[in-house]
């Protein structure tokens, strides 16, 4: 199965939304995870996992995308992926989710850095150099500018790729992952939104 995208409007949309995985020290965006309460004009109200509800002003150029489910067997050598993982006591990385980037977004957020999905969580955006069947899943050998690592992907880990979505998909009850900035005064401003579609929620 091929997950390559031609460089058109759809690919550019997906490439823009994948920047949510980039580590941008200057902007230091906040990642908001939760469920849509409502969308009123440009104001998206989200009930966060932490229990509070926040208002997010969607920027005029805010990118809206969704994800579709893939199988572990769909991840191929040579693809560019992003994977959140936890570090075990033995120092080994175990994936909690994998995103296969469209080819137009290759190199986005490349590297290995801390992530906020839980204790000892990290994100690696890298090229898949090889795939080896291990005892606990498939071991992905990854390389990125400045380093490399190996991530074990258990069979039950969600694996997705980006697909287009629209503001009309931001309906109450849908799970969302929002990358937003939080000014000193005022509300959050959402730059990118990944929304649940066809029953597939954003795992990142």
Quick structural summary:
The chain is mainly beta.
Q: Can you describe what's shown?
A:
- The chain is globular and about 50 Å long.
- Strand 7 and strand 8 (138-144) form a beta hairpin.
- The protein is mainly β.
- The protein has 2 domains: 9-68 and 161-195, Nucleic acid-binding proteins (OB fold (Dihydrolipoamide Acetyltransferase, E2P)), CATH 2.40.50.140; 69-160, no CATH class.
- It is built from 1 helix and 12 strands.
- Strands 1, 2, 3, 4, 5, 6, 7, 8, 9, 10, 11 and 12 form a 12-stranded mixed sheet that branches.
- The protein has one helix at residues 9-17; strands at 30-40, 43-48, 53-69, 80-87, 93-100, 111-114, 121-133, 138-144, 147-153, 159-164, 175-181, 188-195.
The total count of helices amounts to 1
CA-atom Rg in angstroms: 17 Å
Could you name the ranges where pLDDT drops below 50 across 5 or more consecutive residues?
A: 1-27
The top-level CATH class of the largest domain is Mainly Beta
Find the CATH superfamily of the largest domain.
Answer: Nucleic acid-binding proteins
Order of helices and strands: HEEEEEEEEEEEE
CATH architecture of the largest domain: Beta Barrel
How many domains would you count in the coordinates?
2
The count of β-strands is: 12
The gross shape turns out to be: globular
Give a quick account of the main beta sheet: strands, pairing sense, barrel closure. 12 strands, mixed
Strand residues, percent: over 45%
Provide the CATH topology of the largest domain.
OB fold (Dihydrolipoamide Acetyltransferase, E2P)
Overall pLDDT score: 86
């Amino acid at each position: 199965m091929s997950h390559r995208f031609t460089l058109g409007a759809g690919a550019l949309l997906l490439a823009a939304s994948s920047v949510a995985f980039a580590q941008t020290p200057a902007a230091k965006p906040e990642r908001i995870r939760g469920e849509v309460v409502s969308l009123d004009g440009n104001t998206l109200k989200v009930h966060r996992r932490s229990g509070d509800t926040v208002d997010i002003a969607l920027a005029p150029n805010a990118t809206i995308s969704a994800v579709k489910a893939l199988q572990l067997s769909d991840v191929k050598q040579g693809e560019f992926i992003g994977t959140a993982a936890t570090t075990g006591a033995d120092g080994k990385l175990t994936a909690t989710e994998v995103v296969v980037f469209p080819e137009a977004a290759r190199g986005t957020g490349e590297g290995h850095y801390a992530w906020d999905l839980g204790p000892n969580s990290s994100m690696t955006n890298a090229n898949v150099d090889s795939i080896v069947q291990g005892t606990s899943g498939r071991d992905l050998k990854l390389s990125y500018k400045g380093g490399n690592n190996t991530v074990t992907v258990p069979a039950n880990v969600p694996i997705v790729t980006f697909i287009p979505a629209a503001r009309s998909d931001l309906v109450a009850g849908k799970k969302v992952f929002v990358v937003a900035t939080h000014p000193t005064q005022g509300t959050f401003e959402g730059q990118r939104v990944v929304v649940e579609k066809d029953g597939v929620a954003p795992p990142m």
